[in-house]
Here is the input.
Amino acid sequence: MKVLFAASEAYPLVKTGGLGDVIYSLPHALQRQGADVGLVLPAYRTVLEKLKNTRIVGWLDIPGEGRRFSARIVEGDHDELGIPLLLVDIADLFDRPGNPYQHPDGYDWPDNAERYTVFARAVTQLAMDRLKLGWKPDVVHCHDWQTGLIPAMLHMESNAPKSVFTIHNLAYGGLFPHAEYIKLGLPASWWSSDGIEFFGNMSMLKAGIVFASQVTTVSPTYAREILTPEYGYGYEGVLKSIQYKFRGILNGVDPEVWNPRTDEFIPFHYSVQHGYLRGKRQNKKALLGNMGVRAGEKTLQRPLMGFVGRLVEQKGIDLLLDILPKLIKSSNALFVFLGTGQSWYEARLQTLAKKYPSRVLVHLGYSEPLAHLVEAGADLFLMPSRFEPCGLNQLYSLAYGTLPVVHETGGLADTVVDATPENVKNKTATGYVFPDQTPQSLMGAIDRALADFGHTARWRQLVRTAMRQDFSWDKSAQEYLGLYTGES
Ligand code: ADP
Ligand code: GLC
Here is the structure.
């Protein structure tokens, strides 16, 4: 089974969120089950800088908006990646600073429609083995709107590989005006409400949904939620119409990257069998030290709550900001925030950090090492997302014995077991789940967590149960293989 992964990011080359983690770890899990997996990415500047022995394997002539590009197709090596990699190298489109989607000043690249259309055209050529590289995939697995046009383009080919399209987040549709669609020279026959037209715009995400042979999303609960207007972002109708080829498959954790026994980013290793109490305490001290707090015994006994994530409405950061002053007064907890995102959330966090310098510790920016240290050093992990297709941070938190506080939605609902008295008694509880998207509901869960934090035996039991959860990729990889082969 030959599978070509097409995506816009992949750890450790380029990552802005969970998508990057999945594009690294799912191919590895598939390889373990015998699949032959390749990966194709745009040749962003940061990716080229990280590769060794780059070699040109061919050239493709690809149309853009009223111009043509000569795309270099490049192979390259990377010590950690472990997946054969092809890059679509077009300097005019991808050799830029900043992240894949945005200028360093935080606005979307104005030519994103052209960038990802050209990428899709190049991937389609590669998937058809037009460069005669001797490797034609059986399946092209595409991820999110940046690759949504690929299933549509493959649909126009004869003898095309099967396409699988995974929705990681419906909130990002790859929406562009009709005028752009015309300039891109995309087929007129696609422009209908059964095709890629979406309330007057084009939606690259919808292209993937409509034309892929199979469509998935990253948790069973999100797969159900997005069939409703509340979570469907307007796609609920089209998703209902393709239910016969649509399902939710839960993401997993890659133990090579997120594992407190071996994590290269944390100073003290631990496991549920070996020294988790001491390990977490030492990492807590290291984390606080990293944030400028020299923690003595007393401080280490206080609860430490962590947040890592994109500072956007999805993540419910506003719910958290609303209750923070109250929490600071009503408890002795400390808070660590790591994130980047919308400027108004960053500003509010900075204001709170200034007002409560010994309680609210904020790092605005992107730091892979610090993200790992927060998971290892905090006692509680706050993830009050309004919606969460899967969420990886709560899975990492479970593995690191950092009890997650989560809103009952999407993958959060599928992976965290609330510490109700009954679940505590039967030893299944792993965290705190709150039902409503309100500051009060979040506050209720945090209050329960703080109360349990004071009950040492109960707390330790919860931590141990959390650390013993198995969210490995193997089962999900098997499900994907079933989809690829058409057996399930
Ligand atoms: P999403 O993909 O919606 O952002 P996930 O929970 O699936 O949410 O994945 C987020 C991933 O991005 C995790 O690996 C997390 O550690 C990482 N991450 C998010 N923000 C930051 C940041 N500021 N610094 C480092 N890592 C971050
Ligand atoms: C998206 C979602 C997140 C998911 C990730 C990987 O970014 O927001 O919930 O875990 O993709 O699938």
In short: The CA atoms of residues 353 and 360 lie 5 Å apart. The radius of gyration is 23 Å.
